[in-house]
Amino acid sequence: MFFLNSLTWRFESTHIVLELxxxxxxxxxxxxxxxxxxxxVVEDKGGAIALMLAALLFLGTxxxxxxxxxxxxxxxxxxxxxxxITNLLAAVLxxxxxxxxxxxxxxxxxxxxxxxxxxxxxxxxxxAGGIVLSLGxxxxxxxxxxxxxxxxxxxxxxxxxxxxxxxNYFLDDRINKAEILFPGVGCFLVAVCLGSAVHSSNAxxxxxxxxxxxxxxxxxxxxxxxxxxxxxxxxxxxNLEDGVRCSSDSNLKMEKAKVGTAEFLIQLENKRSIxxxxxNTYKGLGIVFFAGVCFSLFSPxxxxxxxxxWHTLKEGVPHLVVYTAFFYFSVSCFVIAVALNIFFLYKPxxxxxxxSFVAYLKDWRGRHxxxxxxxxxxxxxxxxxxxxxxxxxxxxxxxQALPLVSTFWGILLFGxxxxxxxxxxxxxxxxxxMFIIAVAVLMASSGHRKN
Length: 451
Prior knowledge:
mainly alpha; 2 domains; 3-stranded antiparallel beta sheet; 4% strand; ATP-binding; transmembrane helix; Ureide_permease; uracil:monoatomic cation symporter activity
């Protein structure tokens, strides 16, 4: 009996030893795999172009969402506050996933590791980029109402490329092909001129439509005469302290007009939050050009934040990883947006009614769309920067093709350029064709950043 027990114990001991030996043989491979798990960084041109295309779709769609809310009467201050929340959330998600998953390296630390490093010069550049982007986005929110979604996006994007791409080319040590890049920049400049011409022609078409209709616009209200010649006042009653916007009964009974007609323009004017009929054309274009200048500066500032071309960091301090830089970039963008929009609640501009923070909290109309727009813009900007770090920020400006997407949404959702003149259509097609050529040429100039 003792012999059998001893034999059993030896067998079990041998079995345990064999299991330990197998486990020891397996552990090195597991350890090696965990060490091989590195931070995800796009380094090839193909991955960079894929990110640019995704950014193009996202960045071209979110303006259409905000425009839709403005045309339905939601105050832009309310919409932009919602948008800012999820825009920051997108940057946090990118930092905690792409920037934290995997092991960092001495020259490429993880997100949390970089938060405690002495890299404030680069952080300052990233935050400066966020400030100018926030000012540009805030300006375009008003410009869409005056100039239209399509023209606004074309002009601002073209100015961004003309100024920003030129700056990025020299900051990136000329890794992009100049003989291809700068002809593309020239095409964008032509697109700016065509965009201005489209807006002027379309504004003239609208004036002709309104002059031939039985409608009258004065100040911030419009009216349509009924069959008896009596004016149907459609100025809206406002009760923004309670977060409610009311309309007159006669306006609610008004039949839906055909897209592109004078009656359609009047109905749109009565519903939207920003009143633009009869306003100065140069006011809208002035806002657009200011936004374009702001947009042209945020990408070069981000470039300086991640690559430190001006050698502002102390020796031995690694450059900001694109995910960390984007986090600081988005934080400053969020702070400026919230501060300015809360100020505009109580001190509105462009004839908007006064509101309050309490009214904003109560205004749930379209809030989910505003939150979606923030996510689209946040991930779009993040993908643009990830692609730019790999293929050069000058080439990444090809995502400024977003007006192609925005124009599609403008025509499909908002009826822009319906029933316009042949001159307007010719200018519109010419503008879009020039823009397509410019984007193709710009992407063809893509280079490869040496690590």
